[in-house]
Amino acid sequence: MKLSLAFASLLAVPAMVAAKTYFKETFDDKSWESRWVQSTHKEDYGKFKVSPGKFYADKKGSRGLQTSEDAKFYALTAPFDEVLDNSDKPLVVQFTVKFEQNIDCGGGYVKLLPPGTDPKTVHGETPYNIMFGPDICGSSKKTHVILNHDGKNHDNTEQFLPLSDQLTHLHRLTLNPDGTYEILNDEEKHNGTIFNHWNILPPKKIKDPKASKPEDWVDKEFIADPEDTKPSDWDDAPEYIADPDAKKPEDWDDDMDGEWEVPKIKNPDYKGEWKAKQIKNPNYKGPWVHPEIDNPEYKEDASIGKYKSAYIAFDLWQVKSGTIFDDIIVTDSVEEAEAFAKETFLKKQPKEKAEKDKLDEEERKKMEAEAAKAAKEAEEKEKEEKAKEKEEEKEEVEAQEAEEAKEEEEGHDEL
């Protein structure tokens, strides 16, 4: 009996749903070339190359997809293993970006594309479900999360600043079926609901167009005291008076300088403009609040933020190339994405930072050596120029002396 009860209770426990990964990419070998498709929509798309960059934690493990040509559009697409439908499960997109070139203007984001997309024709106007990642141009910096709904793209209204130094940083977006979301930039998290931070639907409430503030509504809280009067001697003191310490300069000449006038100073007894003291307005009703009504254009839409996605794509512009994308995962589990980050990004991060510091120190020493060399060369050149000037002055003096001696000799001959 006990065994059958135990067996029955086991059956009652809901089965655990295994996490599913729809796409994963590390660019650690040449197999990436068979997955990613270059768009032919434009003839002059920039070329991607695989590289760990100038500094890295591991030459193979740090290899990523790097933009290699300046002032170019880039368009590269790869398919998922199967279509991801996030209507009843989380959607998790995670990847790393390294702006090794110290980016001045360009995108560092990815796009998720719907089924039926032709990877060979992907371009800037190709419809997409989600665009996620950093976008930087001058002082304008933002982590975009653009959601498509009914053919229109809607960017997040919250300002999530991306990390834009030259190190590798992790970016993760999670969309949940209940409309909640989370954005992760390394360790910094932002979360909320799609309905609060995207203006996709019209507002639930609007100001009642038939209501207006009553004409007799008093919203001025304080007024001048009608019983307060200005003192009779208030304006007796002028604002400026002659400076009592000023004296006519001894060297002042009325004929030359004009009539001397005593300079003016601010009168310490001047009281300024008189204003009646303020008292509480007895008729004050407080600020008028425009009444609201239900927006007739508002309609609940449970499909917002829910998509069928089949591709991931890089579709971006870069002024200065050098951005490296790596360690991409698209899954339905945050735990799966976190585990992947531990295997890749978090394992490499400390050593990469150490290598960057080492490279910076080498660059600093190199610049100091070049500056010292340039200063020494400049000093030697200055010495040479001074020696040359001195020699030229000597030659000029000798020539002048010779000329004077010649003239003196010719004078003696004439005598």
Automatic annotation (TrEMBL):
Q: Which Pfam families match?
A: Calreticulin
Name its cellular compartments. Answer: Endoplasmic reticulum lumen
Q: Which domain of life is it from?
A: Eukaryota
One cellular-component annotation, GO = endoplasmic reticulum membrane
* Annotated disulfide bonds: 105-137
For the region Disordered, give the residue spans: 224-255, 342-415
Give the signal peptide range: 1-19
Show the ranges annotated as biased composition (Acidic residues).
392-415
Q: Where is the composition biased (Basic and acidic residues)?
A: 224-233, 342-391
Task: Extract the InterPro entries matched here.
Answer: Calret/calnex, Calret/calnex_CS, Calreticulin, Calreticulin/calnexin_P_dom_sf, ConA-like_dom_sf
Question: Which chain positions lie within coiled-coil regions?
Answer: none
* Residues noted as binding an alpha-D-glucoside in the record, renumbered to the chain: 109, 111, 128, 135, 315
A Gene Ontology biological process in which this protein takes part is: ERAD pathway
Per its record, what are the GO molecular function terms? calcium ion binding; carbohydrate binding; unfolded protein binding
Q: List keywords of the entry alphabetically.
A: Calcium, Chaperone, Disulfide bond, Endoplasmic reticulum, Lectin, Metal-binding, Repeat, Signal, Zinc
Q: What is its main location?
A: endoplasmic reticulum
State the family named in the UniProt similarity comment for this chain.
Belongs to the calreticulin family.
Could you identify this protein by its name? Calreticulin
Quote the gene name from the UniProt entry.
CRT1
